[in-house]
Write a structure and sequence with these properties.
Length: 185
């Protein structure tokens, strides 16, 4: 039963993607007149070693034991749910999306953000290790968007974007991004 549901969902996703691709070919938007184009992972995924997995398992087991010892069953369920969701997410392959910078705005996959909806940007570049463009939008739920620059030259991207939006100099990675990178989540 679950296989049939999964197959139906995948078929609908394929049909939806084909319809979008056909519509995009017939009606190109201003976002598609790109000055810069590259592919980047939707989210940065780090391969974890055996030691990381053992330490994570010990921490999860300790948290579960503590929750059971204190009879905090909601905590136990929350930790188990988080561990299962993280494990399932880790098994999924990383999806690549196409990034386009045009004179109209930034397009990530099928989602475009015009420059009028962007407050500012900053680039974090530490040699070959970290090269990321951050865009702050006027949205309240997810105002900061991080985009991997991959093999793009950060100086050229910066020069292009400063003609359209304000650069926030001296701004760095957010605390969550630093924690995620250091803990290899």
């Amino acid at each position: 039963m679950f296989k049939k549901i999964k197959e139906k969902i995948q078929n609908r996703k394929k049909q939806h993607q084909e319809m979008r691709a056909n519509g995009a070919q017939q009606n190109p938007s201003r976002f598609d007149q790109a000055v810069f184009t590259w592919s980047a992972p939707l989210r940065h995924k780090v391969e974890k070693g055996q030691i990381w997995m053992i330490v994570a398992s010990v921490i999860i087991a300790a948290l579960l034991f503590y929750g059971a010892y204190t009879a905090n069953w909601f905590f136990v369920v929350a930790i188990m749910t988080a561990a299962i969701v993280y494990a399932l997410d880790h098994m999924e392959p990383t999806q690549e999306i196409e990034i386009k910078l045009s004179d109209y705005g930034v397009k990530m996959g099928e989602h475009g953000i015009p420059f009028s909806n962007i407050k500012g940007f900053w680039i974090v570049h530490y040699g070959p290790f970290i090269s990321r463009l951050y865009v702050r939008t006027y949205q309240h739920l997810m105002p900061d968007i991080g985009i991997e620059l991959m093999d793009q030259d950060p100086a050229e991207i910066r020069e292009f974007l400063t003609r359209h939006i304000v650069e926030w100099e001296g701004k760095q990675e957010g605390l969550m991004d630093i924690c995620t990178r250091l803990l290899r989540l």
